[in-house]
Amino acid sequence: MGFGCNLILVLVGLIFLGSRLIDAFGTFGFDIHHRYSDPVKGILDIDDRHLPQMGSVDYYTAMAHRDRIFHGRRLAGAGTVESSLAFIDGNDTYQLPSLGFLHYANVSVGNPSLWFLVALDTGSDLFWIPCDCRSCVKGLVTRTGRRVPCDSSSCRLRKQCSARPDICPYQVNYLSSNTSSTGILIEDTLHLTTEDSSMKAVDAKIKFGCGIIQTGSFLDGAAPNGLFGLGMENLSVPSILASSGLTANSFSMCFSSDGAGRINFGDKGSLDQGETPLNLDTPHRTYNISMTQTVVGDNVTDIDFSAIFDTGTSFTYLNDPVYTIISESFASQTEETRSQPSSDLPFEYCYDISPNQQTVQAPLLNLTMRGGDQFSVTDPLVFVPLEGGGTVVCLGIAKSEDVNIIGQNFMTGYRVVFDREKNILGWKASNCYDAIESNTLPISPRVSPSGSPAMSVGPEATARNRSPRSRQAQPGSMASGLKRLSYTHFIVVASILTIFFM
């Protein structure tokens, strides 16, 4: 009996320890907003008169041009990348750097806290904000910040330590022409709120850039309040939060069709999500994945290719042969009449629809990932109203001459998980508004119950002011749900062992 009592005490201790370990990680999140959303335009004081209307020909042309500028790539037939873009009516010229990054989040830093609307970028690592800077909107003044010394393991420019050993300088050069941020690293507080029902405030100590000199498109409105790097290196915020024991080394981004969404740090996804391994043998560590097959309606093509999942790119860019395979398969199964290619649009495969037409019959598009899971593109089509009346619907893929990029248009309707612990990319259909645990349906279900290899789609209204989530008490996140599941398993096993040894 004494042995049984001792065993019970040991198991109770293990259960308590397990619960503490399981609850050690939390999830934290921010609302995210599209560049053209009203919250972003309001905070950055952008005049609507200098922006093309969302959904117009000018808008799609501008966003595609922005993709080329920001990623330094030259698309097929684009010629020389220019710094400005003339709209169709010829009355305005819009400077592309002011288009900025694609998504932004409002974050709170320092003590007293200041809010910064920062650009989100999965293609870079450092989080920096304007701080004691020249030619910037506002700077950070805080009582809790301290400079990172030059001998810190976080400091990469140690060759400059002899000049000022008490500071760690940084310089980040971006692909956009002559665009950079230069300053020093500091350590200060990033204010977070847990995603569970308690909404507990958590102050995370992180190292980030205090930007003193910004150049290029940063001076033209690209990221006037700073940039939030989400890359895979140690200096990115997801890496820092994980190394501090605050979250798992994973985060998710959810994209709604109305331009709003959610980013959640520590979210490792769900047991029923689709998954594929990340390619880690690339020259630059990015969220690169491999595909083995394309499925367009009835046409199945086995083809191996890789692509970068880039949340900061508006559209999807594919090179040959996969671009032609998907586009021609799509065209052969689309009932609408193909329109003449227009130099005003970045898309080659467009179709005329009648003014009163509400739906378009088009084949489903699926990508088979390495490992066998399928990524179903919720809505690959783009509806474009024309200046002279009428509407065309286009396959939202542009041709690339270099890298393949799965852009945000293919991710709409999904919660995409960037799991850097397991080195996988995960995805699950989501509407971005409900509690994460209940996200089971795409924004607009496209597949008929019979599973027909065709879809009927129509233009969707845009609710640009809708908040992606209520900021009142929120249900627990998916990650916390998995923790509860693991804890339940732990208790069951412990109970069985107790009964067995009694």
Automatic annotation (TrEMBL):
Peptidase A1 domain ranges (all copies): 103-428
A GO molecular function held by the record: aspartic-type endopeptidase activity
UniProt keyword list: Aspartyl protease, Hydrolase, Protease, Signal
UniProt entry tagged with the keyword Amino-acid biosynthesis: no
Feature: compositional bias, Polar residues: 444-453
Gene3D superfamilies listed in its UniProt record: Acid Proteases
Active-site positions on this chain: D121, D310
Region (Disordered): 444-477
Signal peptide: 1-24
Single GO biological process annotation from the record: proteolysis
Protein name, per record: Aspartic peptidase
Organism lineage string: Eukaryota, Viridiplantae, Streptophyta, Embryophyta, Tracheophyta
Organism, scientific name: Cynara cardunculus var. scolymus
Record has S-adenosyl-L-methionine as a keyword: no
Family: Belongs to the peptidase A1 family.
